[in-house]
TrEMBL record:
GO terms for molecular function: ATP binding; ligase activity; metal ion binding. Keywords: ATP-binding, Biotin, Ligase, Nucleotide-binding. It comes from the Bacteria. It comes from Enhygromyxa salina. The lineage of its organism: Bacteria, Pseudomonadati, Myxococcota, Polyangia, Nannocystales. InterPro entries: ATP-grasp (IPR011761), BC-like_N (IPR005481), Biotin_carboxylase_complex (IPR050856), Biotin_carboxylation_dom (IPR011764), Biotin_COase_C (IPR005482), Biotin_lipoyl (IPR000089), CPAse_ATP-bd (IPR005479), PreATP-grasp_dom_sf (IPR016185). Residues 3-451 form the Biotin carboxylation domain. Residues 122-318 form the ATP-grasp domain. This is Acetyl-/propionyl-coenzyme A carboxylase alpha chain. Residues 592-667 form the Lipoyl-binding domain. Its cofactor is biotin.
Length: 677
């Protein structure tokens, strides 16, 4: 029977911290590994030991089998937990662990290989009697894929054979879209998995993404732990998951669970795994894939079963039998998880980067927050472009689905995250949407017309947010609680007189007048704030701990979060919406961080240029592809906003670009009143 005493976690961020916590609870010594950007991560502070394994690039650090095994040898670790992603589904890594006499906390390499190739996995499932989606995998020429797509019938889904996480996946609705989709999916799949092969599946419209958590041991026992609904997705990646599924009754749960267990047994599975299905509106279900690892969304299963799945993984890896049989698994209550990402929903959910200025997760009963950041740190932690942009997971439990939903909303509102743009406001709006409240969200919902308003670019700041920003700005400078360097001083008048202030938010400049109001001599100051096109407001900051503040505006007490950037800009979050304010300096030009004014195309995020599709002098039309960028393993296509002629192309394939960097210029054609030159 395999035994071990020291566990190395070959991953990063929230999953590394989560595994280390359980391992230490069970009495195992723990080892963390880290790349250069992760040196101050939470997992490093939790582990007994930690080893530096390389620079930021994943291929040179977390994906380096040699570096991971060397760290295990150096520290005397005798077991490795791969977390999820990175090496978790790498059969060669599992074999390398065995060769080094290390216990691999995961399934046998043969099981990983059986499910790692989607086409082979599908064939195995058909043999095992598990229902599958109609599709094709075989010869990879564009001509053959075109013919097979026509035979299957549109709409179809292109999927990377070796894929996962939505990478290398493209929806195709019409034949004329297919060639470009194949090219794009192949490129992304090759970049992410070193395998550009694709398969085709019939797109099941209006379906839910429902997955079954399975567990198996080395003694022939296999059970399931119920289902998770993961239908709320963007870019084919999950953002909200819940257990149980709102529409799955006990009979359907048993049938899907039995199919999932059959899938696991068909490949000799051991450990934790997830069998993913499409659930059609008529109750039929189809095998999608099996993830041979722990899933990001596993906490919702833990909450409704009252089990620790990492503990079960470690017990199975140590050769022990499963602690329970199927009849003992009971689902109680409801759990919902929301993934907090550094991304911009208003810009197609493009990943965002930047320094984390403030992070303080909510603390309320029934809420769990899994993350990899140090709480309270306001400098030195960054969200870069090398790894997945997920920052944290908030998981709420309730006796009912509605109870869990309300708790999750409260948890999101109370969580302070300032720095890079993120999707917190979007998550709140989605949880409040009638479709989610009613349990009617399908995989197509987030990107549908019904949810268009959820994806709209964030509106400008409210009058209340502007007034509060002005007061925070004024009180910060007055009280010397922030460095004066770079701050305006000309408007700071003597006590008792009005102060004039101009703040800029995006491209909008707001002129404000702040006048102190009479009040208690020993109480906080009260300010009258006047701004154009809004009623005057009276504001008092009642409490301020340097991150969170409580204020009163016209007799209404509320809370907000704020932080200062290194360039003396104020980030203020009010009503779960964040805006950045700066002193208006007319002599300084400003540029939007998006795609410019149509004629100047700027990078929407940091990233690497994968493709340049135009040359100077080329004529372009609105919507035409200009460049392809890759950030955090996600590809995005930059298109022309206007018709015209390409003036400059300032980047080439392989170049790294910064957010807002000028990429391409487009010269609009002359109007009829303008003479051509």
């Amino acid at each position: 029977m395999p035994t071990f005493s020291k566990l190395l976690v070959a991953n990063r961020g929230e999953i590394a911290a989560r595994v280390i916590r359980t391992a230490r609870t069970l009495g195992y010594e723990t080892v963390a590994v880290y790349s250069t950007p992760d040196a101050d991560g939470l997992a490093i502070s939790l582990a007994d030991e930690s080893v530096h394994i390389g620079p930021a690039a994943a291929a040179e650090s977390y994906l380096s089998v040699e570096a991971i095994l060397a760290a295990a040898e150096r520290t005397g670790a005798d077991a490795i937990h791969p977390g999820y992603g990175f090496l978790a589904e790498n059969a060669d890594f599992a074999r390398a662990c065995a060769a080094a006499k290390l216990v691999f906390v995961g399934p046998p390499p043969e099981a990983i290989e059986a499910m790692g190739d989607k086409a082979r996995a599908k064939a195995r499932m058909i043999e095992a009697g598990v229902p599958t989606v109609p599709g094709y995998h075989g010869e990879q020429s564009v001509e053959r894929l075109t013919a097979e797509a026509e035979a299957i019938g549109y709409p179809i889904l292109l999927k990377a054979v070796a894929g996962g996480g939505g990478r290398g996946m493209r929806r195709v609705d019409r034949p004329e879209q297919l060639a470009a989709a194949i090219d794009s999916a192949r490129s992304e799949a090759q970049n992410a998995f070193a395998n550009g092969d694709l398969l085709i599946e019939k797109l099941i419209e209006g379906a839910r993404h429902v997955e079954i958590q399975v567990f198996a041991d080395a003694h022939g026992n296999a059970i399931h732990l119920g289902e998770r609904d993961c239908s709320a997705q963007r870019r084919h990646q999950k953002i909200i998951e819940e257990s149980p599924c709102p529409v799955v009754e006990e009979d359907l749960r048993k049938r899907m669970g039995a199919a999932a267990v059959a899938a696991a047994q068909a490949i000799g599975y051991e450990g934790a795994g997830t069998v993913e299905f499409l659930l059609a509106s008529d109750g039929s279900f189809y095998f999608l894939e099996m993830n041979t690892r722990l899933q990001v969304e596993h906490p919702v299963t833990e909450m409704v079963t009252d089990l620790d799945l990492v503990e079960w993984q470690l017990e199975v890896a140590a050769g022990r039998e499963l602690a329970l049989v199927q009849e003992q698994i009971v689902l109680a209550g409801h759990a919902i998880e929301a993934r907090l990402y550094a991304e911009d929903p208003g810009a197609g959910f493009l990943p965002q980067t930047g320094e984390v200025l403030a992070w303080r997760p909510a603390k309320i009963p029934g809420l769990r927050v899994d993350h990899g950041l140090l709480v309270g740190r306001t400098r030195g932690q960054r969200i870069g472009s090398d790894y997945d942009p997920m920052i944290a997971k908030l998981i709420a439990f309730g006796d009912t689905r509605e109870h869990a939903r309300r708790r999750l909303l409260l948890g999101l509102r109370d969580t302070a995250l300032l720095g890079p743009a993120h999707n917190k406001r979007f998550l709140i709006d989605l949880l409040r949407h009638d479709a989610f409240v009613g349990g009617q969200v399908t995989t197509a919902f987030v990107e549908s017309e019904a949810a268009a308003e959820l994806r709209e670019a964030q509106p400008g700041p409210s009058a209340d947010a502007i007034a509060l920003a002005a007061v925070v700005w004024l009180e910060t400078v007055r009280d010397h609680t922030h460095s004066r360097a770079g701050f305006p001083v000309a408007w700071h008048s003597a006590h008792g007189s009005s102060s004039a202030l101009e703040l800029r938010c995006g491209e909008t400049v707001i002129a404000l007048t702040l006048t102190p109001q009479p009040g208690a001599s020993d109480g906080p100051p009260r300010w009258r704030v006047e701004q154009p096109e809004a009623p005057a407001a009276e504001i008092t900051v009642l409490a301020n701990d340097g991150l969170g503040l409580r204020f009163e505006l016209d007799g209404h007490q509320r809370r907000a979060h704020y932080a200062w950037t290194s360039t003396h800009e104020l980030q203020l979050e009010l009503d779960a919406t964040t805006h950045t304010f700066a002193e208006h300096r007319p002599h300084e030009s400003t540029h939007s961080a998006s795609e410019g004014d149509g004629g100047t195309v700027r990078a929407p995020s940091m990233g690497r240029v994968l493709g340049v599709w135009v040359e100077p002098g080329a004529a372009v039309e609105p919507g035409q592809r200009l460049l392809t960028l890759e950030a955090m393993k996600i590809e995005s296509t930059i298109t022309a906003a206007i018709a015209g002629t390409v003036g400059e192309v300032r980047v080439g394939v392989g170049d790294q670009v910064d957010k807002a960097q000028l990429l391409v210029t487009i010269n609009a054609p002359p109007t009829q009143d303008e003479p051509s030159t």
